[in-house]
């Protein structure tokens, strides 16, 4: 099987080679294009192509069904049969799979299953690159240095099973990250955007935004650790709520291991988490945030099962009007917990009902004292799963707001907060907009969030980071 062999042919041949009781084959065809720049000049650009094949074999036994999973890249004709046999051997050597379920059946085939994979190329930057050059010129004239990168990828995923499923999904994913620095490198500001095609991002507009922030940073104030009225921009809200959803497996909650566990047993489903009418949802068909409408699982875990490959993914409200409505379940964990089937999510949207822009929210900050405006969060790590207490750092600009105006930059902080607690204490939500989570952008990018006003965000210590 050469690189030019169509992915669906790879899938069909692997299924033909299988001697297991059940088989799932996933072919991921990935192409990427990227630009990188430093000091107001392009440094590198490139395109890549790749293929990864995952074979999941299931073997029935007296004690239950076992599964074996093997993934390899750059699979050739000579590699294909050994790959299938390796998956079968892994299944036969494994004990019964706890999450075993019958493989999915009855889903109509994707009409483009036999088509060639979608591909990106440097052409995706046709309009973006000249605008980036203009941003370089403006930054140079304004005494700023721009650093960053633009990356676009297209992944065509083909899923075939021994029960007849033939499904395909094309996922475009683009990220733009831009840093502006003063020539002495003492001031830094960041902005990022997520995009499907680079037609809706304007580097000159981002540069103008960063110029304002570098201007704010010309005045410097030192603040101690403490609790401050804080505006979390959409990117920071996204980072926190992505982690919250990664910690929202129903089984873990039922077994008393997470913040969503109810004291004395059960889960907190139905409990009000926020006094604001916040709705946290996922929808594979959300405009501009489209994601796979069926489960693609390369491995099993708390919130995914290889046996669920091909299972339809519906639109789901995780928090509805401020109340916890759903936790993530596989077919196995739904049956185990008695909770509704709620497959994992490919995008995340928080609707808060607000209409104010971040700038308008700034105008309402600091009238009773000092308020802070964050740029983004960084190095987020879990401290306590029982409360979902997280710690991390602020980065690339924390700004002091007094009487509705930004008056300068302050030092960075380490924070200690739980996103669940933050939702309960939030007093205002702004306008929901597409955003790029900075911390998790290598893993998850399809988000739309509002800014949130937190009256007492816990800046636990001062950080010396820029």
Automatic annotation (TrEMBL):
Domain (Metalloprotease TldD/E C-terminal) spans 226-460
Superkingdom: Bacteria
Region of interest (Disordered), residue spans: 170-189
What Pfam families would the database entry show?
PmbA_TldD_3rd
Q: Which InterPro entries match?
A: Metalloprtase-TldD/E_C, TldD/PmbA_N, TldD/PmbA_sf
What this protein is called in its record is: Peptidase
What is the species of this protein? Streptomyces cirratus
